Amino acid sequence: MALLEIQQVSRRFGDFVAVDAVSLSIEAGEFFTLLGPSGCGKTTLLRMIAGFDQPDGGRILLDGKDMAGVPPEDRNVHTVFQSYALFPHMTVAQNIAFPLRMNGVSAEQIAARVHEALDDVSLLGMEKRYPSELSGGQRQRVAVARALVNRPRLLLLDEPLAALDAKLKERMQLELITLQKEVGVTFIYVTHDQEEALALSHRIAVMNHGRVEQLDEPATIYSFPKNRFVADFIGECNLMDCSVTAAVEGRLTLDVADLGTVMASGADGAVAGAKGTLALRPEKVSIGRELAGADCVNRFSGKVFDYLYTGDVTLYIVEVEGGSRVEVMLPNNAIGRSSKFFEPGDAVQIGWRDDAASFLRD
To answer: Rounded to two decimals, what is the model's pTM?
Structure first.
């Protein structure tokens, strides 16, 4: 039996449907992420799990028990908010001890459990500091320690890293992964940051307009998106309108607008005449003055229209002879200027394997 089961849960605010008949299950020990753009319903769903909001329909079961009518304080679920919500007049130890004092735990037990919680988040020795004396990452760890001190069945995290700079966010992501493994508590994490979700999660539910578009492991969602929204929302992706001209044993021949004939892997049940989208990740496209070898079944000539240098990679925009523009990503792994560095106007060939792109039905 799953630790948490969400069965056909809906929530409306007037005529607006924030969560639309969502069903999913989360296993004990998972790092599970709700991912989606602002307004997709992920935070509303998290609030219903926490008990801060009530569903208009459906059921939420924790360890098989229906949570309907159970107040937040009785759910054995704790939440870490983006603001961390630490008490500025309390020390680190006092902040962490607060929920224990509210539950009438003895002073001796509080001291032991606060020490254990501080050890869990690597903050031993900072017991007497105040929140204003801590870095953003340290405040985040205090908030997590306070949430974990009662050993909840679920820890809910609502965009806890959103306010951190890029370097600190990356470091805190690694710390969260380690912490979740060490304490063994199930994490349900809400974010709009695709890279963060891919880095942290065992499984991801991609949400849009109150519904779950795809639920799967990060690598599967990235490599095999189920529809155009998921392909576009997760990472960089070339998305081109197309139609199927032939379908043989899972391999499709596509007519791609402003590009031409392309071989690709297909969605289940795709047949000739079906319309949809060609999805192609930029890092799966090769580029060169001339491409050699038989790997690139799909091969087109064009010119570099522009490029974007980001340090570790360069993203090229190539305009092919048909008029379509295709993004190509190359790692900058050579010392100095790479021999494969192209300038706008350079004539190039691009190509990719037939299994590098996929057809997404409308």
So the answer is: 0.88
